[in-house]
Amino acid sequence: MKRIFSGIQPSGNLQLGNYLGAIRNWAQMQNDYECIFCVVDLHAITLPQDPLEMRDATREAAAGVIAGGVNPETCIIFNQSQVPEHAELAWLFNCVARLGWLNRMTQFKEKAGKDRDGAFVGLYTYPVLQAADILAYKATDVPVGEDQKQHIELCRDIAQAFNSMYGKDFFPLPEARIQKAAARIMSLRDGTKKMSKSDPSDYSRINMTDGPDAIAQKIRKAKTDPYPLPDSLRELDERPEALNLITIFAALSNKDEQSVISEFAGRGFGEFKKCLADLAVETMGPIGEEMQRLMACPEEVDTLLNVGAIKAREIAEPIVKEAKEIVGFLGPRI
Ligand code: AMP
Ligand code: TRP
Prior knowledge:
The chain is mainly α. It has 2 domains: 3-183 and 298-327, Rossmann fold (3-Layer(aba) Sandwich); 202-294, Tyrosyl-Transfer RNA Synthetase, CATH 1.10.240.10. The chain is 53% helix and 7% strand. The strands form 2 sheets. Strands 1-2-3 form a 3-stranded parallel beta sheet. The protein has a two-stranded parallel sheet with strand order 4-5. Helix 4 runs parallel beside helix 14, helix 10 (212-221) runs antiparallel to helix 13 (269-295) and helix 11 (240-253) packs across helix 13 (269-295). The longest helix has 30 residues, at 298-327. The model has no long low-confidence stretch (mean pLDDT 96). Adenosine monophosphate is lined by residues 9, 11, 17-18, 21-22, 145, 147, 183-185, 194-195.
């Protein structure tokens, strides 16, 4: 069976965009692949973090993945720092990847900003660690958003370079499975801005922890315009808030945007929002309740992550051990 690896940052405040853009796809893939999902705390510290907040955010990310439908009994869910092989393999890959390859990474350029010299070395070598995440499990498929495509290509380059440097066909070249851009969910207050955890207004987003009442209220208050819904998507070009609500409806109901528009053409937002609120409460309400339950039991989440890490390590340890032998390290005899 093919093996999936994917990662999620413990950045706190998971919202509808994280669910529709990432977690839901993972849940849909779990029956067709062997799945390994990782809360990437080693990646998180490439930018400064508050230690206490990061612990909670790690639990929240794990709770979001589980409440979002990923089964922790059949999938492996763990936090990265509990499996030392990630960091170990990343070092081997630091000695395979070239400066020129990393210099091309757009995410580094964006995150480092103008003050390159002030950027952390970890931020620069972030994609090398990501390659180690994937290849420590010899994963074959990596579901990610479009923004991560370049990192997966780098991972393939590293796998290939390692294989040719040591003359062994050891690492597979994993395929990026790009999750469709249709699920780009925008703010409920401003249809031109991405829905994000960092927006100061809680009304701009549906948090994964929101229960039914909060969800319904946020949709009722979402910004719209006074016109009825048109019958074609093209007519929404200048109406970003309207388009966003259609996008959310389509994503939550697994329909395409055009068929949602056709269904509601000519009707006003009062009516459409009511239907959207019902749909969102029905799909996201139980997820919010399960997330709240899990976050109220941190010991339960910690135990799930411990068990996940043990299972992850059973796979990664022999692979990284063999990689170390290939490189020529002298290992223990006993
Ligand atoms: P972030 O926590 O913002 O780094 O997001 C992690 C992942 O969640 C991204 O790579 C996307 O796949 C997904 N995501 C986050 N926000 C949105 C959004 N507003 N619309 C669609 N996908 C999103
Ligand atoms: N860099 C990814 C992101 O920001 C998270 C991530 C870390 C990841 N390691 C990974 C994704 C390995 C896929 C595979 O979204």
